[in-house]
Q: What sequence folds into this?
């Protein structure tokens, strides 16, 4: 079992789903899922999830989660390439 530790501002989430956008009901897991499905920037995540499009208070936290998710996906793809040799 892999425990994911996410620090967003002063909140820490340990492997549990954390709501990032209450207006649209978007969790950190949803953002990670969207990134794993191919989103590679905040704009694409926002378009798919609607996160940050209503009141906007979640935008900074959502961008941080998006950046971490993109980094994790890119690192995983590099690791896969290293094993392909």
A:
């Amino acid at each position: 079992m892999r425990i994911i530790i996410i620090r967003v501002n002063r909140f820490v989430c340990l492997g549990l789903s954390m709501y990032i956008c209450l207006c649209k009901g978007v969790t950190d897991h949803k953002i990670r899922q969207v990134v794993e499905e191919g989103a590679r920037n905040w704009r694409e995540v926002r378009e798919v999830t609607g996160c940050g499009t209503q009141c906007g208070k979640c935008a900074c936290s959502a961008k941080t989660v998006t950046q971490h998710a993109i980094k994790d996906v890119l690192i995983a793809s590099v690791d896969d390439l290293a094993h392909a040799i």
Notes: Residues 59-84 form the longest helix (26 residues). The chain has one domain: 5-84. DSSP finds three helices and four strands in the chain.
